[in-house]
Amino acid sequence: MRFSIRLLLLAVGLSFALAQIGIAQETKREMPTFDLGEIVVTSTRIETQVKNVPNKVTIIDSQMIETLSPKNVDNILRNVCGVDILRRTGLTSSTSTVTLRGMSGNVRGRTLVLLDGIPLNEPYGSEVYWNSISIKDIERIEIVPGATSSLYGPGAMGGVINIITKRPERLENELDLGYGDFATRSFNLSHSNRLDKFSYRISGAGFKTNGYVAALNRRVYDIRRSKENYNVNLKLLYDFDETSSIGMDFRHYEEDVNGGRRYYYGSKDLDNFSLNFKKEINDIRYFSTLYFSWDDLSWTYDKYPSYTSVDYVNNSPRRGVGGSFQINIPFADIHTLSLGTDLRWGKIVTKDEYQSVVRRVQTQGKQQLIGFYLQDEIKLFQKFIINLGARYDWWESLDGYLYDDNLSPKETNYSDRKDSAISPKLGFAYHLNDNTTLRSSIGKAFRTPTLYDLYRTWGYGSTTYRSNPNLDPERMYSYEVGIDQTIGNDFLGRLTFYYNDVKDLIYSVDIGGGIKEKQNVGKVEIKGLETELRYNIMKDWSLFGNYTYNSSKLKEHTDKTLEGKSLTYTPKHKCSLGISFHNPKLINIDLVGRYVGSVFHNDSNSIKLKGHFIWDLSFVKAINEDFEISLKIENLQDRNYQEYRNYLAPPRTITGSLRYKF
User: Fold this and answer.
1) Residue 161: helix, strand or coil by DSSP?
2) Distance CA 153, CA 149 (A)
3) CB hemisphere CA count around 156 (13 angstroms)
4) Which single residue of 253, 435, 508, 660 has CA 20 to 30 Å from 328?
5) Residue burial 19-33, b: 16+ Cβ < 10 Å; e: rest
């Protein structure tokens, strides 16, 4: 740490010295303003001003992302009201779990994550590989918590996070190099250009860290958790005119990660390809997309309890195909009608090849879905906006299969299952005046069981995790009411109450004998309050603060002793606060703190992880309009805390970076 502290003192001193001699030039980083007239697309699937949306929407733009200097995309979301992040070992984690509004922080698949409107949740367990998204490619992120199945179908039960990438508009080149504790190295390189109607963007990023020993109680076999990952991205666009275009996107991602023991490691290769088209004819807009994903994951598991040899190797190829088509039709000056369809298909084949014994386990299955939706946005007198919509989804799980040498019979072919759901939603936004907006909504949402939930039975350590091919979908009724208050462009206050009534929640239930089985456990009640304040105090100075109260309780359960217990890894209290000094001619400084309350590790709530309050500090200094240096200190107090039981979160971590535009 001595080197890091010296680096910090040197960089800060240099920054102020450069400022005093006046060699810095003004950049585009200015104080943020809070304008609810900003356009969003995620909440209603059409371009709509934030103030006209019946749900609470949070927008994180590229300027804010640059200020935060995050290592991973999900780190950007840590300070957003109602968002819970579980990244077990920080920068060394392969992925993380991101949930909205108390939908259990240890379960994936209840939040739909989109990249330019295309789902990132893979078809096996609905996991999202956040590391695969290059931070420098992001233009903005839109977060819409609450039931959104009326537009997006299954997976959007807790809400939607839409990551929107930069559109190439001009000749730009950028190089970003970073170095920090644990010998962490990173780079981002991008080139974009426009040639008349044709434009393109090429980018690449890399990250490598030697990591740290994350085990809470270090044992002889515990080693550093290390990781490296790389991605390459290509975006091509051709604009026929101002309202019509065709585009293509390709992303490749690969990673290697060590899980903290010599024989516990994995690798991943991911490719995504998509085509998109939009056209406007007589004010009627047409949108269509087609996308493909190829996902290959390999993970080596060590032998319990010695962990000194390989037990088995899991290989999981996953394939996905999907598409969507939407039409937006304005009529009678007050209506905007949106109708469309989504198609999705996914396939998995996962194999466990044992090295310690003669055994093979294989699971496979497919899932397909088609959905149709209709929505009308009605504007009355420019003060009252009504959103009325519904969606019908039909899905099928098929070709389910399990082979295991240890079972009798060894082979099981599961019956195909079909089901459907209708998800209506009604929302209102009312402008009391230019500064005050009231909003409310009620909707129904659902989540289908994933292929992992239905078919994947596996074991690790002394526990067997058993699938359940008879699972029903989760269903939820969601209610929200809130108020937004602005004063000029320098003050924003928001208050939101929400209530979710969830039925048939899918949960891993301990049925004894070292077996945990997926079951529809009954009913969960989720209720909460979100408050948010942002204020530009004076020239160059601003502050923000937010607080989330959330109660997620099991109201009905197949195990009566668990009724009244809290969902695991879901904090009841959470808050963030920060203060910023932004002066483009001098320096940008951001001090951000976050408190995450205590969480329970197990269903019976007998094991609790303490809450923690962490400060992060960052400095950004523009040397001139093309060259910038930055420094970020995470976990400023160097506190020991756990996001997940028995794993230490990273200690104080200091990272410096150089950014050059040419």
Assistant:
1) strand
2) 4
3) 23
4) 435
5) beeeebeeeebebbe
pLDDT digits (tens, 9 = 90+) for 391-419: 999 999 999 999 999 888 899 999 999 99
Q: What are phi and psi of 287, to 5 degrees?
A: -130, 140
pLDDT of the residue at 16: 34
116: left (phi over 0), alpha (psi -120 to 50) or beta: left
Q: Residue 407's pLDDT is what?
A: 84
- Residue 6's pLDDT is 38
Greatest Cα pair distance, the chain, in angstroms, is 79
Let me know: does 86 contact 106? Beta carbons within 8 Å: yes
List C-alpha distances in Å: 76 to 115, 270, 296. Answer: 15, 22, 27
Distance of CA 304 to the CA centre of its chain: 32
| pLDDT for res 248 | 97
Strands 506-512 and 39-40 turn out to be unpaired
SS3 label, residue 112: strand
| 3-class DSSP state of 143 | strand
CA atoms within 13 A on the CB side of 362: 11
In the prediction, which pLDDT does 37 show? Answer: 64
Site of tokens 């304040």? 533
Length of the chain, please? 662
Closest to 296 in 3D by CA, of 273, 274, 319: 319
Write b or e for each residue in 126-138: b if 16 or more Cβ atoms lie within 10 A of its Cβ, otherwise e.
bbbbbbbbbbbbb
Q: What are phi and psi of 661, to 5 degrees?
A: -105, 135
Cβ atoms of residues 309 and 356 within 8 Å: yes
Can you spell out the DSSP letters for 21-71?
A: TT-----S-------TT-EE-TTTSS-EEGGG-SS--EEEEHHHHHHH--S
3-state helix/strand/coil string of 367-399: EEEEEEEEEEEEEECCCEEEEEEEEEEEEEEEE
Q: What share of the chain is helix, strand, coil (3-state, %, to 5)?
A: 10, 60, 30
Q: Determine contact, residues 423/390, Cβ cutoff 8 Å.
A: yes
Q: Is the peptide bond before 305 cis (omega within 30 degrees of 0)?
A: yes
Q: What's the Cα-to-Cα distance from 454 to each of 47, 154, 225, 399, 659, rounded to whole Å?
A: 37, 16, 31, 11, 47
Model pLDDT, residue 35: 61
- What is the C-alpha to C-alpha distance for residues 138 and 623, in angstroms, rounded to an integer? 24
650 upstream amide cis, omega within 30 of 0: no
CB-based contact 232:216 (threshold 8 Å): no
Phi/psi at 485 (nearest 5 deg)?
-130, 125
443, β-bridge pairs: 425, 478
Neighbours of 287 (CB within 10 A): 19
Cα distances from 13 to residues 64, 67, 471, 581, 587, in angstroms, run 24, 19, 60, 17, 11
**Residue 54, C-beta contacts closer than 8 angstroms, at least 6 positions apart:** 43, 385, 387, 427, 428, 429, 439, 440, 441, 480
Task: Tell me the whole-structure pTM to 2 decimals.
Answer: 0.92
Q: For residue 441, what are its two tokens? A: 């909504």
Report, as ranges of residue numbers, the positions in the chain whose pLDDT lies below 70: 1-37, 105
Closest CA to 478 of 522, 529, 525: 525
**436-447 vs 48-49, strand pairing mode:** unpaired
> SS3 sequence, 336-366?
EEEEEEEEEEEEEEEEEEECCCCCEEEEEEE
